Amino acid sequence: xxxxxxxxxxxxxxxxxxxxxxxxxxxxxxxxxxxxxxxxxxxxxxxxxxxxxxxxxxxxxxxxxxxxxxxxxxxxxxxxxxxxxxxxxxxxxxxxxxxxxxxxxxxxxxxxxxxxxxxxxxxxxxxxxxxxxxxxxxxxxxxxxxxxxxxxxxxxxxxxxxxxxxxxxxxxxxxxxxxxxxxxxxxxxxxxxxxxxxxxxxxxxxxxxxxxxxxxxxxxxxxxxxxxxxxxxxxxxxxxxxxxxxxxxxxxxxxxxxxxxxxxxxxxxxxxxxxxxxxxxxxxxxxxxxxxxxxxxxxxxxxxxxxxxxxxxxxxxxxxxxxxxxxxxxxxxxxxxxxxxxxxxxxxxxxxxxxxxxxxxxxxxxxxxxxxxxxxxxxxxxxxxxxxxxxxxxxxxxxxxxxxxxxxxxxxxxxxxxxxxxxxxxxxxxxxxxxxxxxxxxxxxxxxxxxxxxxxxxxxxxxxxxxxxxxxxxxxxxxxxxxxxxxxxxxxxxxxxxxxxxxxxxxx
Length: 508
Prior knowledge:
Elements: H1 2-49, H2 57-63, H3 74-87, H4 93-99, H5 101-116, E1 119-123, H6 127-139, E2 143-147, H7 172-181, E3 188-192, H8 201-204, E4 216-219, H9 224-236, E5 241-244, E6 256-260, H10 268-279, E7 287-291, H11 307-310, H12 334-352, H13 364-386, E8 397-398, H14 403-413, E9 427-431, E10 440-443, E11 450-453, E12 460-464, H15 465-476, H16 482-485, H17 488-505
Parallel strand pairs: 1-2, 1-4, 2-3, 4-5, 5-7, 8-11
Antiparallel strand pairs: 6-7, 9-12, 10-11
Helix pairs in contact: 5-12, 6-12, 9-10, 13-14
């Protein structure tokens, strides 16, 4: 009898549990079904709120506020009207969050809020700048200022992020806004169709809505003068900026990295930018996107200006603006996109506070450390030679040189080659001339004594290790002058490079 009661009790509990589970499933299904209906309703409301295509030709003409643009089509007008409503707040925020859902999960809701409230300025809206802008808008940045004087051309279409044939002849800033409003209508765009230059910097980088200062600036300029002016201004005014170096003639996306301006290498734009900034006292502190890819046999190079172009008049008259480049840069259409997305990625991580952990210069730091060790060893050896071989004299000897100095000398001054033969392997740095006086600098006494070498960057020359052994034997610890060891052309070449070094050295 008791067994029957137990079984009945168990069966009753099972039935109750099953009933509860079934009820829970029905309730959950009802809730989820209701949420789906709500979501569909919001989407339907959004679609219904999209303005219908109009036949009013006057309305179509009103969309074109840039005299150089072609007449807008009906789709442009619809996007423009929807964007006007979205930017006024008439757009379901839940739908925006759904569109940004993947970013929100990655960056956290707090990080995405920072991004949505950020104000970013992109200077240069060509291949690099357009891809950067598109990525930032799609990722959630809601206030974007675009600065570019140029118009879309047919040759722009191989690398521009959003330009179509219909955009040829329209300002690049307007093209970006028109196309991106169809994707992210809530983004506020501030268009400045003009060339960036130092005297207009205060106005072009001024605060925008409610006095908000730029949270980040993207330098996507391919002209040296304006690029340097922008970076110098941002550096002096503590405005976060990232600079894109040359994508022209590059083909290997695996060699594109982010590093400090002091370590960027292997393209003329970054080299010239570094040199100009050094003369202005800016030697570090600006993140850059650059490629470590080297030129080689069969690779694209800067095309020379055809002779027939010279016959048309002064070279400066051939450009769209005075002193602006007129030669054609060979560009693989994929590479500016990689540069632009890399810059956008850096801005997104920086604004949201996401950890940045870049690999330093693809291992080149080790090369610079090795060169610094070679200079240290060379100074110790020379000091012992000059003091009669006393090993104690070099204990604790320091050299006033850093790995950044090594990078500058090798990459910027000597172009990664021996100044003697032009070879690129097994490089080292050592003094060019034997010092006439002691190289030892002493401060303090006893246990507080500090010993250092007086070596300067303008004393050092780049050569192969084999050439260095000969140079050390015949010049530094021998009796000869460089003029007795090398031909006149080599001596003049080295002396010229050392003079260049001396000009920049005071800005270290």
